[in-house]
Design goal:
This protein is α+β, with helices and mostly antiparallel strands. The protein is built from ten helices and 28 strands. Strands 1-3-4-7-6-5 form a six-stranded antiparallel barrel. A six-stranded antiparallel barrel has the order 9-10-11-14-13-12. Strands 16, 17, 18, 19, 20 and 21 form a six-stranded antiparallel sheet that branches. A hairpin with a 4-residue loop joins β6 and β7. The longest helix is centred in the N-terminal third of the chain and has 25 residues.
């Protein structure tokens, strides 16, 4: 009996050891990656004269404090509490991270890490320190290329971020809160994320622990290749909350190449104001599903106008690349070299139309926010089936507004179905892909009267100098 128990105990122990060994094999081992790549990660500190009050770092291009709270750039100010009162020319010090991309001293980091710096110091893992100069910085992608004067440095290898899979393990190395060469790991949470005021970067979202000081550091895949640059966190506290965002390596490489060659980044532009295509907009335009970028207006003498792009077109493809969301278009166009002639595909009046466009160079962003209709009460409209009163424009008004036709909204009833304002000019009605230019009150009301109660229509609205599309889902019963 004792022999049987002993055998059973040995068998159970063998099974447990086998299970533990199997689990150990399945868990990732980051030691080799860190040993091989850690030396290429650097600590960056900057010094600058204080030009504004306040202890918190500022986010380039974002002034709203609530947005700052959510998307706080992570550059801690040092030294901390207890520092003596500053003198007549106080200096602020900030910490960030970076990584060496060539043996002769080129380093990539975030633009916000070195912005406004009077002096940049780069510290290697072997404690050597160098003064760095900025070769170029690009605020739109938050990429900066800096250079230290030395050779024989360890350099990272780059991977293809397009091959990353959601759920894949990734590793960050950086200097959170000044703790140099800190290693954290997690998984890819999502790809192609759009963030506020970041039109040119399809961010990699991860749950890798990122904190102030990690900014500008590399994000590695399990092959030890850099697939991103850690740039932002989503946080209500300023610290890590499980949502980190990295700039894809292919975007960074393209930017650094241009910065190295000419000190700036040239981006394409086509001269359109766009908005998102909602499901209701897609229905009213006769599109099979919500996709593309709806053209609100076309800039005069722009590449888009010369190519024949019209307001109310939905751009579904640019240079052979599908445009699934309006946020895709600025990225694709921006990555296209100015002067290039590329194919453009639009959805126009219920059919696909192919155009050719010569891309211009971007000077400023012109992307409109989508006007989303607010939910309305389903009370019977007293003015017309939208609950609004409209009037025809005089010849003088048409001339002043530079429009050929349209109806001005003179009254919006409390039970209105359309999210329009008094003074708005309604130019076009779109229903099932059919575009009808509005010319008279009688024509407009007759058109509304002939629609089904559950019809989805879209109004092209001119509000001041801005154009927008407003979708209405469902009309009141016919009076």
């Amino acid at each position: 009996m004792r022999t049987m128990k002993a055998v059973a105990a040995l068998w159970l122990a063998a099974v447990c050891l086998s299970a533990f060994a199997q689990a150990a094999r399945e868990l990732p081992d980051f030691t080799r990656l860190v040993e091989e790549q850690g030396n290429a990660v650097v600590n960056i500190s900057t010094t600058q004269a204080v030009r504004r009050s306040g202890a918190l770092p500022q986010v380039p291009g974002i002034e709203d404090e609530e947005v700052l709270e959510f998307f706080r750039r992570f550059i801690p100010r040092q030294p901390g509490p207890g520092q003596p009162a500053p003198g007549p020319r106080p200096e602020s010090r900030s910490l960030g991270s970076g990584f060496i991309i060539s043996t002769d001293g080129y380093v990539l980091t975030n633009a916000h890490v070195v912005e406004g710096a009077d002096e940049i110091n780069v510290k290697l893992t072997d404690k050597r320190e160098y003064k760095a100069k900025v070769i170029g910085a690009d605020k739109r992608t938050d990429i900066a290329l800096i250079k230290i004067d030395t050779t024989g440095l360890p350099a990272v290898r780059f991977g293809d971020p397009t091959k990353l899979k959601v759920g894949e393990w990734v590793v960050a190395i950086g200097s959170p809160f000044g703790f140099e060469n800190t290693v954290t790991a997690g998984i890819v949470s999502a790809k192609g994320r759009s963030l506020p005021q970041e039109n040119f970067v399809p961010f990699i979202q991860t749950d890798v622990a990122i904190n102030p000081g990690n900014s500008g550091g590399p994000l590695f895949n399990m092959r030890g290749e850099v697939v991103g640059i850690n740039s932002q966190i989503y946080s209500r506290t300023g610290g890590f909350m499980g949502l980190s965002f990295a700039i894809p390596a292919d975007v960074a490489l393209d930017v650094q190449k241009q910065l190295k060659e000419k000190g700036r980044v040239a981006r394409g532009r086509i001269g359109v104001v766009i908005q998102e295509v909602t499901r209701d907009l897609a229905t009213s335009f006769g599109l099979e599903r919500a996709r593309g970028a709806l053209v609100n207006s076309v800039e005069k003498a722009s590449p888009a106008e010369k190519a024949g792009v019209e307001a109310t077109d939905i751009i579904v493809s640019f240079d052979g690349k599908p445009v699934e969301s309006s946020s895709d278009l600025p990225r694709i166009v921006g990555a296209t070299r100015p002067g290039s002639q590329v194919p453009l595909e639009v959805w126009r009046k219920g059919a696909t139309k192919k155009l050719a466009i010569t891309v211009g160079e971007l000077q400023e962003d012109r992307v409109a926010a989508a006007d989303k209709p607010k939910p309305q009460k389903s009370a019977e409209a007293q003015a017309n089936r939208l609950g609004i009163v409209v009037a025809e424009l005089s010849a003088e008004q048409k001339k002043d507004m530079k429009v050929a036709g349209g109806l001005v909204v003179t009254e919006v009833r409390p039970d209105a179905r359309a999210d329009v304002r008094k003074g708005d000019v309604l130019l076009t009605v779109v229903h099932k892909g059919q575009h009808t230019e509005l010319k008279s009150v009688e024509q407009f009301n007759k058109l509304l009267a002939g629609l089904d109660k559950n019809a989805v229509i879209t109004l092209q609205v001119k509000r001041g100098e801005q154009m927008a599309f407003v979708t209405i889902s469902g009309l009141t019963d016919k009076g």
